[in-house]
Design a protein that fits this description.
alpha/beta; Rossmann fold; 8-stranded mixed β-sheet; binds NADP nicotinamide-adenine-dinucleotide phosphate
Length: 245
C-alpha cells in the first residue's frame, strides 16, 4: 500500500518502516458489538490504531474505554477511541464491517467508503429449529462482502475474520489456535487483512482466493456454530499443508 500522495482527504495508508510490520488505522463499524470490540482489542494489542464506530458516539466511547482498560497500558499497544461510524471512517484507511447482516446494506450505502480498504466479517446467518444456517444472498450468486463491494464501488472490499469467535477474541489467550482466511479481488487489499490477522492468530492470514468465495466463508460459520453447540466449544478453522506458513 502506498502513502497517500495527494493529500486529497483520504487518510494515510499504513506506515511501513523497514522490516517492521505495517501498522494501520482501523475504523470498526459496529465496534460496540462483541465481534468488532474483540477484533479491535486484538488489533490494538499489536500496535494498530483502532477507532470503534457506533451509531451513537457515546456508546462507542464507553466501549473504547473498556478496551483501553483491558489493554492495561501494554507496551506498544495502539490507541483505541470511539466515534460515530461516519467519523471513524473519515479518520481511517482501513474499515472493518462488524455489523449484523440485517441493516448492513443500508449502512454500507450510507457511509463514504471511497478509497478505503474495507474488510467484511459479516455472516448472513439465520436460525431455526435445526440450528444455524446460511442465508441465500442474491439467489446464491452473492454474499455480504460482495454486496458491500457493489454498494461501495470506490472502496476495495475483502472478506476475513468470518470464522473467528468473539469469545476467543476477548479471551486471555495470546493467540487463537486457528487461521484467518482472507478473500478478495485485490492483492494489496488482501494483504492488509493478512497483516491484521497476525494480531489474532500470531501468523499471517491465509489467502483464500477471490471475493466471491465469501459465499463459502460466510455460511461456513453456521457449521462452526453447530460444532460449538455439540462440543460446548469455541471452534475455529486451521488450514493444514501450507508448509512454513
Ligand atoms: N459474534 C461472533 O462471534 C461473530 C463471529 C464471526 C463473525 N461475526 C459477524 O460479525 C458481525 C457483528 O457481530 P456481533 O455479534 O458483534 O453483532 P451485534 O452485537 O449484533 O452488532 C454489532 C453492532 O452493530 C451495530 N448495529 C446493530 N444493528 C445495526 C443496524 N441495523 N445498523 C447499523 N448498526 C447496527 C450495533 O452498534 P451500535 O448500536 O453501537 O451502532 C451493534 O453493537 C455480524 O455480521 C456477525 O455475523 C460475529
Amino acid at each position: 500500500m502506498a502513502e497517500n500522495p495527494d493529500n486529497s482527504g483520504t487518510p494515510e495508508t499504513p506506515e511501513v518502516t523497514g522490516a517492521d510490520p505495517a501498522t494501520y488505522t482501523v475504523a470498526v463499524i459496529g465496534g460496540t458489538g462483541p465481534q468488532g470490540k474483540g477484533l479491535g482489542y486484538r488489533f490494538a494489542r499489536h500496535g494498530h490504531t483502532v477507532i470503534l464506530g457506533s451509531r451513537a458516539a457515546e456508546k462507542a466511547e464507553t466501549v473504547a474505554a473498556e478496551v483501553t482498560e483491558r489493554l492495561g497500558g501494554l507496551d506498544g499497544a495502539g490507541a483505541v477511541s470511539g466515534a460515530t461510524n461516519e467519523d471513524a471512517v473519515a479518520a481511517a484507511s482501513v474499515v472493518l464491517l462488524a455489523v449484523p447482516y440485517d441493516g448492513h446494506d443500508e449502512l454500507v450505502a450510507a457511509l463514504d467508503l471511497a478509497g478505503r480498504t474495507v474488510i467484511s466479517c459479516v455472516n448472513p446467518l439465520a436460525f431455526d429449529q435445526r440450528g444455524a444456517h446460511g442465508r441465500v444472498i442474491d439467489g446464491g450468486e452473492g454474499s455480504a462482502a460482495e454486496s458491500a463491494q457493489r454498494l461501495a464501488p470506490e472502496a476495495v472490499v475483502v472478506g476475513a475474520f468470518h470464522n473467528v469467535s468473539a469469545v476467543g477474541l476477548w479471551s486471555e489467550e495470546d493467540y487463537l489456535d486457528e487461521d484467518v482466511i482472507v478473500v478478495g479481488d485485490s492483492v494489496e487489499a488482501k494483504q492488509v487483512a493478512i497483516d491484521l490477522a497476525a494480531s489474532v492468530t500470531g501468523r499471517p492470514g491465509v489467502d483464500g482466493g477471490k471475493l466471491r468465495l465469501a459465499r463459502v466463508l460466510e455460511p461456513f460459520t453456521a457449521v462452526l456454530i453447530s460444532i460449538n453447540r455439540k462440543y460446548k466449544a469455541h471452534s475455529g478453522i486451521r488450514v493444514t499443508g501450507l508448509g512454513g506458513h
